[in-house]
Amino acid sequence: MERSLPSVDYRVVQQIQSSPQMMGEQGSGFMSQYGGPSGYVELDSDPTLGLVYQALEQGALTEELPVWTGLPTKDINSALVRLAQLKVIEPMDPVREVTL
Amino acid sequence: MRSVKRFLLGGVVGILCILLIGTPVLALIGNPTSVSIGDLFVFRNVVESGDQLYFVRYSVTYPVTPGEPASNYFLMAIYSTNGTVLLHTRPLNYYQENIISIYLTPAQALVWGDPYIIKIMGNPAIFSPLVENTNMKTRTLGPSDFHEASDLGSYMVAQATILQTNWVVTLLVNGLLNATGATFFNQAVPGLSTMVPLIFQTSISYTSIPPSSENHTYEAAQQAKRGPALTAALNETASGIFGASGNWFGVFAAALLMGVFGGVVFPMTHNPGWVLLGSGFALGLVMWVGLIAMSAFAIIVAFCLILFGIYMLAHI
């Protein structure tokens, strides 16, 4: 199943995060949702990052993810490293290679 | 002849330079993966009788949001019913799924209920040619798209509900637009907080205070009797009651006061000096309330002092 980020112009995200009042309403959940404006732009611009992030959010980041998505395991793992660098997620163990 | 040619060539080059400097150059961006109109509504009488608001929830989808501002590349347009005349436009604020509107004053308003054509389209200067479903989406207004102003609030809340689900951003709290929702809806529909203040968690409205219709004649009549006008009022009273002018009334009052004072003080002191002194104070009081002039008071006081002096000299 194809997953994608919410169809939001990242300027919307930036505008929310630049407003203390709006951020106060959205709370920390919003930050973790998008990882800040730069995080959202990265997620928005890199389909692999977006897909891995969505899979993580949905609890679908398993060893079977490469099978379902067709993405190489090493691409998924490098996406996890990149997401951690962006502080969108906490650093985590890489996905293991599945031998079919 | 040669110098004329040089002059003309120089002029042409100069004009070209000015045109090139003055014309903004927009970067090319590709067509969106899809362009669509989610909802389309027209409301009337939203701010004043006869105005109209054309509202669209659109989607100009790019897999990666372009870095260029959407306002330079896409716009909402209202065309005539046969689609040949461009009537009104407004640039979009954002790519992806969002909202936009065009407000028409009563003077600009179109024929209510007519099938005008609404487009979300690329900037013709950038996207050429404009192709339906590629970089342009067209909808023709139908009878069910037209609504009264009383529907505006509930329709906006319904739109916010759709957007907050799709954006995964909280726009509504207890069915009212929070600061985030208010910001984006006021961007899309300038003046929405004035049109339907009750759908906002917080909004500012101004109460209108009608101008006073009182004629203030009573206050004016009282003001005319203040301060220096007291003499005039007393004159009026004196002439009304005694049939005499205020001056004569003052003389009578002063004489009465002096007589009473003298009748009381002299039997107790057997000294006309105290009577004269006290009369001076009585006259001062009469002058202070405006019954006699200060010059008259000064003459009488001087006269009293002379009498007092003569009396004292005679008895020392």
Report the radius of gyration of chain B as a whole number of Å: 44 Å
Span between termini of chain B: 128 Å
Give the CATH topology of the largest domain in chain B: Immunoglobulin-like
- End-to-end Cα distance of chain A, whole Å, is 20 Å
Number of domains of chain B: 2
Q: Helices and strands of chain A, in N-to-C order?
A: HHHHHH
Note the total helix count of chain A: 6
Give the gist of this structure:
The complex is a heterodimer of chains A (100) and B (316). By secondary structure, chain A is mostly helical.
Helices, strands, pairings?
The complex is a heterodimer of chains A (100) and B (316).
Chain A: H1 10-18, H2 20-34, H3 36-45, H4 47-57, H5 65-69, H6 73-85
Helix pairs in contact in A: 1-2, 1-3, 2-3, 3-4, 4-6
Chain B: H1 2-22, E1 34-44, E2 52-61, E3 74-79, E4 86-91, E5 96-104, E6 117-122, E7 136-140, E8 146-148, H2 152-167, E9 172-173, E10 176-177, H3 179-188, H4 192-195, H5 217-223, H6 229-242, H7 246-269, H8 272-288, H9 294-315
Parallel strand pairs in B: 1-8
Antiparallel strand pairs in B: 1-2, 2-5, 3-4, 3-6, 6-7, 9-10
Helix pairs in contact in B: 7-8, 8-9
Can you walk me through this structure?
The complex is a heterodimer of chains A (100) and B (316). Chain A has 100 residues and is an all-alpha fold. Chain A has helices at 10-18, 20-34, 36-45, 47-57, 65-69, 73-85. Chain A is elongated and about 50 Å long. Chain B is an alpha+beta fold and 316 residues long. Chain B contains nine helices and ten strands. In chain B, helix 7 packs antiparallel against helix 8 (272-288). Chain B starts with a helix and ends with a helix. The model of chain B is unreliable at 16-22 (pLDDT under 50). Classes of the chains: A mainly alpha (100), B alpha+beta (316). Chain A binds chain B through residues 6-13, 15-16, 19, 21-22, 24-26, 30, 33, 41, 44-45, 47, and chain B through 59, 61, 63-65, 70, 94-98, 166-170, 173, 178-180, 183-184.
